[in-house]
TrEMBL record:
Pfam families in the cross-refs: VWA
PROSITE patterns: VWFA
UniProt name for this protein: von Willebrand factor type A domain-containing protein
Sequence segments annotated as region (Disordered): 339-367
Species whose genome carries this gene: Micromonospora rifamycinica
Domain VWFA: 390-581
């Protein structure tokens, strides 16, 4: 027996029903033959084993078709019938549920809806979801070298008249630098993107565009930030909302004012054009090729032997020529980039194996060449550049911050920290309000902290903050962590503003050493008293060096929300800072 639920995300505003959650770690199936299909198929069976499969909406019909054929041929394990329940589930919904169960943090994803069911098999649209879950704290995952069952190149969708006049489509070969110039010209092309924190095609396009911006010479960070903000003005939370902003008539004014470019999958463009819109979309295959959607086959461990055998056989069925033909009906390619019978490639598409990141000769490995660090940087940079917040930055200036950092050419911990904060400052736009404190012990009389700049909009105090950061020097004092944290929390809470992320971000390289200050238990108790769910203040603490106690820091953030991040290598705090700032309270999905 087989059933399928959910709908294609591009053709409806209704998200896939019953988004699936993973109860434990993910084990991604690797290549190689498993128990043969014929060994588990029989003419008769009794009882029933239910195998739950959560698949990205566009691939779900093909998976359902293969499962239905298997069931029709007598799917059984040890004489017990198999029922396959295929649910069309948005990957972001499943990722939210998995993150919730594993205590992982995924910037921009939000909390799980609470209505998810647990699948035995998860087929998201991209291995980036698995990598983000692992790097976000779901350390039990093993997403590397996972088996891919399908593929769709990521392209830039452009209205065909615009593609012809502006880019010479379909004959001219184009690069991401060409697109970057079009987005940043005097008469910029209106670019859009589906939230890359929630959409794998959007993330792939973001990675490619920011790589072009950062590699263009000059101030790489400034160029990257400008590209992020240009995209942010045209972002959409849902893919169908973005598609609705493409021109709907042949009127030149309508074309000029509508969306002009967006990173989408090849399948998206084909499906959109199949609806016979007034202005079809061109699929631009830019170089270097962005990460394609690779549809990894991920099996949850802990299922019983019968389900495990059934899942293995189902995977075998999804590697056959027959399944390749089913994919073609859904406008999807096979994992090696080739396609089955009936696939109609968009004009300008490269050869069947082209149009995306090269795959190994086996043609079945997902996640090949993906860089988790680059993904984290892109997601964090996007989250910072596109959100608005109110933040107090608090930097340790105790004597131990003079310690040299060998991995940073022996710059001091203080210098490395200030440099990271300065780079981060450039990512925040003028809608942010930011203040700056330093702390040690007895920094101002008996007080452990000093206010360098109060929290004010960056539109008026950016220069003052830059000067304040440049003037920071280590003291000869110790670490007055607890008194400072309580004072900083009160300061942000007293000026709390609705509709924004209100936060304290504190850098420190040591444990609390203030013998005259409050105790840890007293601090935690006071924070619990001050914490108001209706007026949340998020606390992010970044610990630097081996003297920091993560347990001590987490005792604070467990009360306030936020997170504690510790690295023994201070040269890495730049990336940690961006990742930490990208965290924000998210409403349930």
């Amino acid at each position: 027996m087989v059933s399928v639920s959910g709908r294609h995300r591009m053709r409806t505003s209704i998200r896939g029903a019953g988004a699936a959650a993973a109860a434990t770690a993910l084990v991604v199936v690797v290549g190689g033959s498993w128990v043969g299909y014929q060994q588990l198929a029989g003419p008769s069976c009794s009882g029933e084993i239910q195998l739950g499969v959560a698949a990205a909406p566009e691939v779900a019909p093909a998976v359902e078709g293969a499962a239905a054929q298997w069931v029709a041929d007598g799917a059984a394990v040890g004489g017990t019938c198999i029922k396959v329940n295929v649910t069309a589930s948005e990957p972001v919904e499943v990722a939210a549920a998995v993150a919730s169960k594993h205590g992982a943090s995924l910037a921009g994803v939000g909390q799980a809806s609470g209505t998810a069911v647990t699948p035995d098999v998860w087929i998201p649209d991209s291995s980036t979801w698995l990598l983000r879950l692992k790097s976000g704290g779901a350390t039990a995952f093993a997403p590397g070298n996972g088996a891919s069952i399908a593929r769709s190149p990521v392209v830039v969708a452009v209205p065909q008249p615009v593609a012809t006049t502006k880019f010479g489509w379909p004959d001219k070969k184009l690069t991401w630098n060409d697109m970057l110039r079009a987005v940043r010209s005097d008469k910029p092309l209106r670019a859009g993107i589906v939230e890359p924190t929630q959409d794998a095609a959007g993330l792939s396009g973001l990675l490619s565009l920011t790589a072009a911006a950062s590699g263009g010479g000059g101030d790489a960070q400034q160029a990257t930030t400008a590209a992020l903000r240009a995209l942010a003005t045209g972002r959409s939370a849902l893919r169908q909302d973005l598609l609705a902003r493409f021109p709907r008539s042949n009127d030149p004014t309508s074309i000029a004012s509508a969306l002009g470019a967006a990173a989408l999958s090849e399948e998206d463009v084909i499906a959109y054009n199949n609806t016979k819109p007034p202005i079809p979309l061109a699929a631009l295959y830019l170089e270097p090729s962005p990460m394609p959607l690779d549809y990894p086959y991920a099996v949850l461990p802990g299922i019983d032997q019968a389900k495990s055998s059934a899942a293995k056989v189902l995977f075998e069925l999804l590697t056959t020529q027959g399944f390749k033909n089913r994919l073609a009906v859904q406008s999807l390619r096979a994992p090696d980039g080739n396609w089955g019978d009936g696939f109609k490639a968009p004009p300008g598409a490269p050869s069947p194996a082209g149009g995306g990141t090269a795959v190994p000769p086996s043609g079945g490995t997902a996640a090949g060449g993906l860089d988790p660090v680059a993904i984290d940087r892109a997601v964090s940079g996007w989250s910072i550049a596109t959100q608005s917040g109110r933040m107090l930055c608090v930097i340790d200036v105790s004597g131990s911050m003079k310690t040299p950092v060998p991995s940073a050419n022996n710059a001091s911990r203080e210098q490395v920290t200030v440099a990271a904060a300065s780079r981060g400052l450039n990512l925040f736009d003028d809608s942010w309000s930011i203040g700056l404190w330093t702390f040690s012990t007895e920094l101002v009389g008996s007080r452990d902290w000093r206010e360098i700049e109060p929290i004010n909009p960056l539109s008026g105090n950016r220069g003052k903050l830059e000067q304040g950061l440049a003037g920071i020097r280590p003291s000869s004092g110790d670490t007055g962590l607890y008194d400072t944290m309580l004072a900083a929390y009160k300061n942000v809470r007293d000026g709390w503003e609705p509709g924004r992320v209100n936060s304290v971000v504190l850098f420190t390289d040591g444990k609390n050493e203030d013998k005259n200050g409050i105790s840890q238990s007293a601090l935690v108790s006071r924070l619990k008293e001050l914490n108001d769910p209706e007026r949340p203040v998020q606390v992010v603490i970044i610990g630097i060096g081996s003297e920091v106690s993560k347990t001590e820091l987490q005792s604070i953030t467990n009360v306030t929300g936020g997170g504690a991040f510790v690295t023994e290598d201070p040269s890495k705090i730049g990336d940690i800072f961006l990742k930490a700032i990208a965290l924000r309270p998210n409403a349930p999905r």
